[in-house]
Amino acid sequence: MKKSKTILLAIFIFFTLRAQGQVPGPLKLIQTIPLPGLKDGDFDHFQIDLPGQRLFLCAEDNSAVEVIDLRVNKVIHKITGPKAPHSMAYDPDSKKLYVADDGGPSQVEIFDGTSYQLLGTIPMGAHADPSIYDAANHLYYVGNGGKQQKEDFLNISVIDTKSGKKVGDIRVDADRVESMAIEKTGPRMFVNLYNKAAVAVIDREKRTVIATWSIAQEGRNNGSMAFDEADHRLFIHAREPGKIVVIDTESGKVVTTFQSGGMVDDATFDPKMKRIYVTGVPFINVFEKSDEGERYDLLGQIPTAFHSITSILVPSLNRFYLAVNHHGETDAVVQVYQVVP
Questions:
Q1: How far apart are CA 39 and CA 111, in angstroms?
Q2: Are the beta carbons of 83 and 118 closer than 8 angstroms?
Q3: How many Å apart are CA 190 and CA 225, to the nearest integer?
């Protein structure tokens, strides 16, 4: 009996230490921000207002955008106009928040960044969801149309955030797009073609697709994307079979892959730390680029909660934010992590 107790104690200690060991060095939880008044349901994406020290969060299933003051780490407002907000752009010069919303009429809503009042809407095709903001040129790119519009192509609409007007459409021969990345030193934009297991390369100046890179030999259902522009590496997460596909953006060729399973919805590259943060369930996987060729080492795995797959890295604040859904008796919160060197 004593021997059995000793074995059980040893097993308990082993699993306790193992669980503790899953909170590694790359991220340290330092605070939790309550999100009061939310029911069960998913979040989608964050957006940052650095000059105003605010964080916006799309509470998709709660038909709201949460506004968080990062100076006090507290919710200061809830924008309740959007029906199913997915992604956003904030222009600090015009002080306007743009929200891609497909919950009623599919549209982009424009809110005053100070009063949070609705200023106007821009009609979109079906399923206005994935988007990316080119802050340097004040252009907001929003994917819409495609499968939910019963068409085999879609548009990436271009919105001028200074004028609040749509200034063009980029046709993409695919029925669903997901994450996008913008090249700051050139005119290209990279777009995940989810159902084609490929990446579209778009010339933003010509507003046309100039190349398509397949990842079908490595995986499918490519949703999340991160970009290391300095080293010309594009990181594509393929949900099937659960791995990162690394593409050389000079050649369009796959150079390596590495495992990162789970339900993933956000991926971010930190150029200062040379790290990739892959947010999913059950873990945030943190990888670091090795000095030895095309190798990316797993630094640690930070456990996440039920369907907590929405995150944002803010390098200038040395912070990583994770949205945790309301689920049953668990209240919705934003977890604040310090990035540890």
A1: 24
A2: no
A3: 9
